[in-house]
Amino acid sequence: MHKIYTNISQISGDVITVSAPDVGYMDIAQITASRGASLAQVIRIDGEKVYLQVFAGSRGISTGDKVRFLGHAMRVASGDDLLGRIFNGSGEPLDKGPVLSENMIEIGGPSVNPVKRIIPNKMIRTGIPMIDVFNSLVESQKLPIFSIAGEPYNELLARIATQAEVDIIVLGGMGLKYDDYLFFRDILKNHGSLSRSIFFIHTAADPTVECLLVPDLSLAVAEQFALSGKRVLVLLSDMTNFADALKEVSITMERVPSNRGYPGDLYSQLASRYEKAVDFDTAGSITILAVTTMPGDDVTHPVPDNTGYITEGQFYLKGGVIEPFGSLSRLKQQVNGKTRDDHRTIMDTMIGLFANYRETLEKQSMGFHMSSWDKKLLNYGRLFEEEMMSLKVNIPLEKALDLGWSLMASCFSPEETGIKKSMIEKYWNKSAEDR
Q1: Are 332 and 130 in contact (CB under 8 A)?
Q2: CB atoms within 10 A of CB 266
Q3: Of 67, 62, 56, which is closest to residue 14 (Cα–Cα)?
Q4: Angle, nearest 10°, between helix axes 239-252 and 208-227?
Q5: Which of 28, 73, 129, 230 lies in disulfide reach of 400, CB 3.0 to 4.6 Å?
């Protein structure tokens, strides 16, 4: 039996304060009020003074209500019964399905011992050339998608969810518009991917504390599937909303703010989630893609700035496309030499030519005379943007590589590309025949 306390000493926003001994940080408590029972989570301990964030908000709670500590952190169900299900940030069903109470696991545990990890060496194909060809997504990688409000980052996540060659998709939505939640649900359902997916959804109208729980719920469930041998892709949107929720709680707790009001442990809070990415040496893997919106397109904002020190590169979504010069997958060299022997050649040559195209655009805008070489670059750049960069393009890696040869052959002679002779002899004539 857990002792019941009725000495609520303070109610501030959605945080209540109770005097109680022997309580653990992040433990869950049940509050029985006139409106019914609700859950709360310990977010700070000062001696015997315990601060709890109420999941459903503190409205209707009075100082004489009963508080019962459950003696454990937040738990979530695990196992195959979760597949195809949609839950809120408290782990409660949103899809009118049954409440799951078996195979319960605690969330927010430590990251995996490095001894149990293997070096990432397997590619996750997405059907998106700007990822597969130029910045390959590697199994067990942790990558943010840097973007700004209004960009189609949720559409990009949904497309990756439907096309990525993985076993399980776990989607964690934080501060989503309700329309965005419905969009994810309908897209995955229409593409037949809902049956291998699990949703944890926090909308902008839901309590702040549920926003903080979404990454931990998603990653705890992902870890259980990975331990059973599954390749799991965790998609999180938006980690800036998560950080803003941290800031809101920190302000409520009257903590000394750090940069732009964010808590001083922002880096640790983000790292503890991203470091859950892992490839087990005897089981499956967890790969993390997380949207990080940048207020004012400012990459020095505390959230993207701290994220950049934790993750292994980033995808930079700007102007509705994945920008080649803002994006970087630091692990791509682990896999793109194992795909096809021309992968690195195509990647390096096409990006080099595209960089020359961008320089030519600047010359053109300043009124410089366009040489025959400049005109070739302008033609190549236009084709590259239409047939490679556009997110409408949906082709397998091998076809994307063939397309790369075809685009270069339609704009340049072999000698102008700087590609070594053996590769030219193997692929150039074939691309000419395909045109």
Answers
A1: no
A2: 21
A3: 56
A4: 130
A5: 129
Q: Which of 372, 374, 348, 373 is nearest to 361 (CA)?
A: 374
User: Using CA atoms, how far apart are residues 9 and 63, in angstroms rounded to an integer?
Assistant: 6
Structure confidence at residue 1 as a pLDDT band (50, 70, 90):
low
State which amino acid sits at residue 27. Answer: D
User: Fold for domain 76-333?
Assistant: Rossmann fold (3.40.50)
Strand partners, 17: 10, 51
Query: Reduced to 3 states, what is the DSSP secondary structure of residue 413?
Result: coil
Measured between alpha carbons, how far is 200 from 209 in angstroms, rounded to an integer?
Answer: 13
Distance of alpha carbon 3 from the chain centroid:
40
Q: Which residues pair with 29 in a beta bridge?
A: 40, 69
The pLDDT tens digits for 264-302 are: 999 999 999 999 999 998 899 999 999 999 999 999 999
Helix (H, G, I), strand (E, B) or coil at 315: strand
Closest CA to 350 of 289, 285, 431, 273: 431
pLDDT the model gives residue 376: 95
Listed as own residue / partner, the contacts of 94-97 with beta carbons closer than 8 Å and 24 or more positions apart are 94/199, 94/201
Tokens 């339609």, residue located: 410
Place of tokens 């040496």: 281
Tell me the one-letter amino acid at 186: D
Strands (DSSP E) found in 55-122: 66-73, 75-77, 86-88, 104-106
pLDDT value of residue 158: 94
For 2, phi and psi rounded to 5 degrees? -100, 135
Measure the CA–CA gap between 233 and 286, rounded to whole angstroms. 6
Instruction: Tell me which residue of 107, 85, 117 sits closest to 279, measured CA to CA.
Output: 117
Question: Are the beta carbons of 411 and 372 closer than 8 angstroms?
Answer: no
Q: Are β-strands 104-106 and 75-77 bridged in parallel, bridged antiparallel, or unpaired?
A: antiparallel
SS3 273: helix
Computed on alpha carbons and rounded to an integer, the radius of gyration of the chain in Å comes to 25
